[in-house]
Amino acid sequence: xxxxxxxxxxxxxxxxxxxxxxxxxxxxxxxxxxxxxxxxxxxxxxxxxxxxxxxxxxxxxxxxxxxxxxxxxxxxxxxxxxxxxxxxxxxxxxxxxxxxxxxxxxxxxxxxxxxxxxxxxxxxxxxxxxxxxxxxxxxxxxxxxxxxxxxxxxxxxxxxxxxxxxxxxxxxxxxxxxxxxxxxxxxxxxxxxxxxxxxxxxxxxxxxxxxxxxxxxxxxxxxxxxxxxxxxxxxxxxxxxxxxxxxxxxxxxxxxxxxxxxxxxxxxx
Length: 269
Description:
By secondary structure, this protein is an alpha+beta fold. It has helices at residues 37-57, 80-91, 97-114, 117-130, 134-149, 170-174, 201-208, 225-231, 241-253; strands at residues 5-15, 18-27, 30-31, 157-158, 161-162, 239-240, 263-268. A 3-stranded antiparallel sheet has the order 2-1-7, covered by helices on one side. Strands 3-6 form a two-stranded antiparallel ribbon. Strands 4-5 form a two-stranded antiparallel sheet. The radius of gyration is 19 Å and the shape is globular. The N and C termini lie close together (12 Å). The relative contact order is 0.24.
């Protein structure tokens, strides 16, 4: 088997006023964005860990823990690359688990399709692009509340814990709360306090790998990821790892010069 050429380097980066230093290993050859997910997962984990440190220093304990799973019943938007990546993960599962997971996705998707929930989500999203209003905001809150009231869990949820924890989407990694865990069963702006983080990696990655495939926002809801992967062909370009990292950091930091590895060397892994 041919080994993949990699670049290893020390990174110094400023995100939201916070300074980060970490060692990263990235592909030196052209790859699709899915191949960069382990790198961006590591960065997301570092950002979240820093947020946890700040919260604990302020004596605001994180309420999230294994066995809670309340947030796993929310409508979550993921990136195109994560949709394809997770679809491959499902296909790699042995039977009968693969069939069980696929049925959960199909049942959940059908449930919300019958309610015309996806259509309404897309319509409200189109209206939002034309301009935000208080009335539209209320409609969105009502729509999200309706989704939660259906109590349809993420297909990957097992015994109220994530069964793909190491591969979970970036947005799931970022979502931690300091408000009482029981409030997440019926979340409202008045009873949920999300842990603040210095950078939105999930949004940056979604922007990084967005193509014309995701014209309708609801197509990238987590509950529809298998449908998305089945009905769309990948349109991703291939770029070397440093180029993907550079573009990601620019989106994450909103800076033209975000800071890149000070030292990097090619090595065979």
